[in-house]
Amino acid sequence: MLYIVATPIGNLGEITYRAVETLNSVDAILCEDTRRTAVLLERYGIKKPLVSYQKFSEKEKSGYIADRLEKGENLALVSDAGMPMISDPGKILADELIKRGLEYTVISGPCAAINALVLSGLDTSAFCMCGFLPEKKSDRKKFIERFTDLTATLIFYSPPHNVTADLDFLKSALGDREAAVVREISKLHEEVVRGNLADFPEFTVKGEFVIVVEGAKEKGNALNALPIRSHVEKYIADGLSKMDAVKRVAADRNRPKSEIYAEYEKSRNE
User: Fold this and answer.
1) Are residues 92 and 123 in the same domain?
2) What pLDDT shows up at residue 223?
């Protein structure tokens, strides 16, 4: 059996009794960083073989791990922090196990996305975990289009060196929405900064960041009743670029972007 085990996201005291029991019972533990996992295991007196299982080696190691499970071994999968498979390795292994008809189970525990959502003060009734934004600008635009019109609260992970750039990008792509930046969850210097995407200062401090953003407003007929120019300029005033505003209006009205753009430019020149 494979046990997917959630581990602390900051404070080492957050691990569950069941997680400790499970890690003590398995034959070996799969982990991203053996040195980091060793610190956790030492804290709880767990002495088990560690097997490196990182994102770049998932494909080549998943078959080998599945073979071990088929032979009757019990293994645990952990990430550096939080729940494996949530912006961390594990999905390829799970796919391999499902393909072979092998079962796996989850040992519950911390997840930074959930903690950040609750700390944000934004709507928790529906939310979408979006993960990390792509590094390449060309990939970012295509990536964010999947979430632009979702009314659910959006959750993004952000590396410490990129959080200000990520906030700027989210404002340009989504408009000036309510948001919260959560840093160092469960640690001594945990911090929550709430406001609008346009209002956040430049972050120069280190730490693990989660950005939580208000979902899109429900689409109604009110905006569609406006003239095209007013409709486009409403989105521009919300912080979108002209072309992104045109794209949003086209989606609202279920019309081609080229038609909306032509009508908008014509009205501006009249």
Assistant:
1) no
2) 77
pLDDT for the residue numbered 161:
84
CATH number at residue 136: 3.30.950.10
> In this structure, are 65 and 134 located in the same domain?
no
Q: Across the strands, what pairs with 194?
A: 180
Domain range spanning residue 140? 112-213
The reported pTM is 0.78
pLDDT of residue 170: 94
Could you give phi then psi for residue 187, rounded to 5 degrees?
-95, 175
CA atoms of 76 and 88, how far apart (whole Å): 15
Do 207 and 225 belong to one domain? no
Same-domain status, 153 and 198: yes
Question: Which residues are within 8 A (CB) of 86 and not within 5 positions of it... i.e. 6 or more apart?
Answer: 111, 113, 129
Q: Please report the pLDDT score of residue 208 as a whole number.
A: 83
The total domain count for the chain is 3
Integer Cα distance of 76 and 31 in angstroms: 9
Same domain, 119 and 49: no
Q: What is the pLDDT of residues 197-226, one digit of tens each?
A: 988 888 877 778 999 999 987 665 567 778
Q: Which regions of the chain are under pLDDT 70?
A: 218-222
E-assigned strands of the chain? 2-5, 28-31, 50-52, 75-77, 104-107, 127-132, 153-158, 178-183, 191-196, 209-213
Q: Distance between CA 41 and CA 224 in Å, rounded?
A: 58
SS3 178: strand
Spacing of C-alpha 167 from chain mean position: 14
Angle at 217 between CA 212 and CA 223, to 5 degrees: 150
40 and 83 assigned to the same domain: yes
